Amino acid sequence: xxxxxxxxxxxxxxxxxxxxxxxxxxxxxxxxxxxxxxxxxxxxxxxxxxxxxxxxxxxxxxxx
Length: 64
Description:
By secondary structure, the chain is mainly α. It has helices at 13-20, 26-36, 47-53, 57-63. The mean pLDDT is 90.
């Protein structure tokens, strides 16, 4: 899956799942949780998913 995460070198699927637990739009959460089922928890999140959610990999670095 590395071809799908060219800009994202740090955000894993597990990290995004945790982030989505508090995401305000539950419809978006439902959709992305279903999409993320196709990936292993330790895989990097594809760039397009982060982009569609309006977040960057750097956001996760700042929040830790």
